[in-house]
Amino acid sequence: MLTRSLHGSLLLVDDDRHLLESMADWLRDQGLAVDTSTGYGDALEKLRNKSYEMLLVDVRLQDGDGFDLLEQVRRNYPESHVVLMTGYGDADAAVEALRAGAADYLTKPLIDDELLMTIERAFAQREVIEENVHLRKELDKQNGLSNVVGQDPRMIKVFDMVESIADTKATILVTGESGTGKSMIARAIHRKSGRAAKPFIEVACGALPENLLESELFGHVAGAFTGATGDKTGKFMQADGGTIFLDEIGTASPAMQVKLLRVLQELEFEQVGGDKTHKVDVRIILATNENLAEAVAEGRFRQDLYYRVNVINVELPALRQRRSDIPLLAQRFLQDLLEDTNRPIEGFSEEALAALEGYTWPGNIRELQNVVERAVLLGKDKIIAACDLPRDISGGPSINLPRVGSMTLKEALEEPERQIIRDVLESNNWNRNATADSLGVNRTTLYKKMKKLGLEDGKYAQH
Fold first, then answer.
1. 61: Cα separation from own chain's centroid
2. Is the pTM above the cut of 0.85?
């Protein structure tokens, strides 16, 4: 018996009519939708009129050869898998079949369990291929320009630049305030380039101290420092053939700037503690929210490195500079959230959209996304109203979130998430299981977020 339920379509091709019909009946009893064909020409005719997930083909046919049919299927119907079968099999023929693209090669007389296992394996392989195709399409959707929303002339200019520079080898510097989407633009450039099938490696340079950053970028050899028990492959090696994205490049120390200059110029480096020079083929994209020209004038950033990274500059506007895009972005975030939460929300009221457009958005797109998520999770009606927004935005009687001037940007961006989780916890009487279900996250994720945001046991003070 099959180990799992299969409902696939199968074309059985064999010129032995008695064997053909008896095998077809038996396969139908296993739950498969089976059509039969007595030869090469008839099989091709059936393929022109109907698609099959799998073909089970005898190698020797009166009007052709199973290998020829395999070639036709591979060329014209690549979504179909082919299993060849023969009464005259040998090891060389099996190897030839697999090299030609057959999913498997069986020798008659067929054993029931072996045949069922082969069919099951072929269907599973097909599902994996389909899933990979789907994931690649989703990746293109998420990382391509189609996911970057904007109709403002400033953004149209950015889109045009991305299209024109994607396939160049030049180093690219993406600038803009925090939360403007620099990482997304870097990924879009990669997905538009001829390197799209190769790795995209992202490194947040500001998140690591200098000694760890050097090891992270270039790798290290065993014994390079205390705790280096084995060799480590750095991010530049991992990105070979693809793209490496160095975010927060303005935070690099003077010593690290020297090393980066060499890599940018020669694409060569040594691992920490090693003496072997490694050469890589990578496209380098850098990003910063700092004014590097000012950093150069103040002596914090090397002038020669600045000229080297500033070959092509993609400057992203702040959200307050492209207010006409705010309704589009809010609607995109809403649609994405509705797919995950299944909330019965239809859109925003005119007052809510006006409030969103009138706000200055110090946290830019990332802050807008947090605000929309909060409104979706806490809103009670089908239409998000102005009163569902934080008071800083709506001016109405809602939660008063501190402005960025009184805290760091990171704290300001965390505050909407903290408020969302705390409100849902309170509505569920601090029942964590119920809160996790309401938020659409697992309990472990909720616990980690509560600990990070100081919400354990309701201890975080209200603002």
1. 46
2. no
Query: Which carries the bigger pLDDT value, residue 435 or residue 11?
Result: 11
List all residues 6 or more positions away from 58 whose beta carbon is below 8 Å from its beta carbon.
13, 14, 15, 16, 66, 84, 85, 86
Of all residues in the chain, the percent with pLDDT exceeding 70 is 88
Looking at 3.50.50.60, 3.50.40.10, 3.40.50.300, 3.40.50.740, the CATH number of the domain 146-317 comes to 3.40.50.300
Q: Give the lowest-confidence range in 5-14, 60-69, 164-173, 383-392.
A: 5-14
Q: Which sequence spans correspond to the domains of the chain?
A: 9-138, 146-317, 322-458
Rg (C-alpha) for the chain, rounded Å, is 30
Read off φ and ψ for residue 55, nearest 5 degrees: -120, 135
Please name every residue paired with 270 in a beta bridge, in sequence order, or none if there are none. Answer: 277
Between the CA of residue 235 and those of 201, 218, 263, 272, 423, what are the distances in Å? 7, 6, 12, 13, 40
Q: Could you give the CA distance from residue 459 to residue 101 in angstroms, rounded to a whole number?
A: 62
- Please tell me the predicted confidence (pLDDT) of residue 397: 44
Which amino acid is residue 386, in one-letter code? A
How many Cβ atoms are within 10 Å of 273's Cβ, its own excluded? 15
Give the relative orientation of helices 364-378 and 326-341 as an angle to the nearest 10 degrees. 50
How far apart CA 145 and CA 163 sit, in angstroms, is 9
Whether 322-458 and 146-317 are alike in CATH topology: the answer is no
Q: Does the structural domain 9-138 have CATH classification 3.40.50.720? A: no
Round to whole Å and give the CA distance between 125 and 6. Answer: 13
Q: E-strand spans in 178-275? A: 200-204, 219-220, 232-233, 243-247, 268-270
428 pLDDT more than 90: no
Fold annotation for 322-458: Helicase, Ruva Protein; domain 3 (1.10.8)
Mean pLDDT (the chain, rounded): 84
> Can the peptide bond before residue 109 be classed as cis, meaning omega within 30 degrees of 0?
yes
Residue 415 scores a pLDDT above 50: yes
